[in-house]
Amino acid sequence: MADCAFCGLMAGGGDGRVWEDADVVAFLDHRPVFPGHVLVVPRVHVETLADLPAGEVGPFFLVVQHLSGAVERAMEAQGTFVAINNKVSQSVPHLHCHVVPRRKGDGLRGFFWPRGRYGSPEEMASVAATIAAAAGWSPP
Questions:
Q1: In a 10 Å sphere around its CB, with 0-12 CB exposed, 13-18 middle and 19+ buried, how is residue 93 labelled?
Q2: N vs C: which end of the chain shows fewer Cβ within 10 Å?
Q3: Strand, helix or coil for residue 134
Q4: DSSP 3-state helix, strand, coil percentages of the chain (rounded to 5)?
């Protein structure tokens, strides 16, 4: 796609690449949370994970899995955070997965979102049933 920053980056090469194969390109985020923050991007232009063709999901996540370990080793991190934004907070409308090196005490705890509890077991069951129905699944 001509006006997509990631499609342009993939077409033109560029600094910061850490992985490239027939399906996926990965490169350093130009505004990293921490050094070693990698973006994993499918070559096919899709905006969200739901748009990625089923046959490409496996190859995409195999690279995410591989790079999660590579980032941890390379950056001497204690772990990684792996995340995808779909639409909301997605700064480039091309599917990309963040692989961020993590260390205990790195200050990222409050970076994400506040967490809460369901008001009751009934509310939780209602939300679960609504999502299951939208997914086309019914509990046994």
A1: middle
A2: C
A3: helix
A4: 35, 20, 45
Segments of 6-121 assigned E as strands: 17-20, 24-28, 38-42, 79-83, 97-102
What domains are there in the chain, each with its CATH number? 5-111 (3.30.428.10)
Going 116 to 120 to 126 to 132, the CA torsion angle's sign is positive
- Convert the pLDDT of each residue in 107-123 to its tens digit: 886 556 566 788 998 98
Task: Note the pLDDT tens digit of each residue in 11-59.
Answer: 887 678 999 999 999 989 988 999 999 999 999 999 999 999 999 999 9
Q: State pTM to two decimals.
A: 0.85
